[in-house]
Amino acid sequence: MNARGRGGATRDDDFWTLRAAVGERGVVGVDATTVPLDDEERSELLSTENAMEEARALWLANDSWTRRRRALEVVSAALILAGVVLFKVMIFTMFLRAVSPAEGKRTMRWSERRELWLYFYPSFVGSASYVAGSYVLWCAANRSWRPPWTPSNVSTWIAWLSFIGSLLYLIGSCRCPEWLNPPLKAVAPWASDGAPTLFVGYFVGSLVFAAQSALMIHEIACAAEEAKRRAAESGLRNRGGDRLI
Q1: How far apart are alpha carbons 25 and 240 in whole angstroms?
Q2: Tens of pLDDT, residues 44-75
Q3: Count of CB atoms within 10 A of residue 197's CB?
Q4: pLDDT, tens digit (0-9, with 9 covering 90-100), for 100-155
């Protein structure tokens, strides 16, 4: 656009009106800054989109990790779901034990055998399922069976935190060594037996899972914003076949 020297400006009632230069159309501030696409430009745009879709299809068809990643995510979800179910067995067992009547009137008689099958094994095997599922997810996020220990983006941070939190839960499900109890009682007489593994495992592990959840919320929000942006760009391309000048 130009204001003077090429017939691009006129004066009307002491106000300047900017007009397009030679070979251009429109008035600044009056006419829209879009013009219809001609047939050649529309054909070029369509050819570019078709080429991009063809390249994407070839990439999906020939990249092994792209095909494998969805399957690994399903396997990871199944393993983590199994761990959740086993943890629920342990949690509801502890709940029933806590709310049952006093000793001698218990409707649920507790024994070492029941503790093994309803508390220890569900929590330990459930934690192991968490570890296995998180490792599969970590491999899928990094597109490698031997992923690096240093995360490189939000997706790998989420998978890495899931794996670390699962390892901590596995520690929490293990029985605390007997030799740790005497020094623990000396430092903290109020602490119960097994407190070190419970604290390091379940408390610290829960903090790691909380950080992972925050990153997942962030990633979902970013994905939603990206989807809106792409939808807006697609709408601009398809709305009346206009283009910016």
Answers
A1: 19
A2: 666 776 777 776 776 666 667 777 888 899 99
A3: 17
A4: 765 555 556 777 788 888 888 999 999 999 999 999 999 999 988 889 888 988 98
d(CA 153, CA 219): 10
CA 147 to CA 137: how far, in whole Å? 10
Please report the pLDDT score of residue 127 as a whole number: 93
Kindly report whether the global pTM for this prediction surpasses the value 0.70. no
Better pLDDT: 65 or 18: 65
Give the separation between CA 137 and CA 131, rounded to whole angstroms.
10
Reported for 48-53, long-range contacts at CB under 8 A and 24+ positions apart, including other chains, are none
Per-residue HEC secondary structure of the chain comes to: CCCCCCCCEEEECCEEEEECCCCCCCECCCCCCEEECCHHHHHHHHHHHHHHHHHHHHHHHHCHHHHHHHHHHHHHHHHHHHHHHHHHHHHHHHHHHHHCCCCCCCCCCCCHHHHHHHHHHHHHHHHHHHHHHHHHHHHHHHCCCCCCCCCCCHHHHHHHHHHHHHHHHHHHHCCCCHHHHHHHHHHCCCCCCCHHHHHHHHHHHHHHHHHHHHHHHHHHHHHHHHHHHHHHHHHHHHCCCEEEC
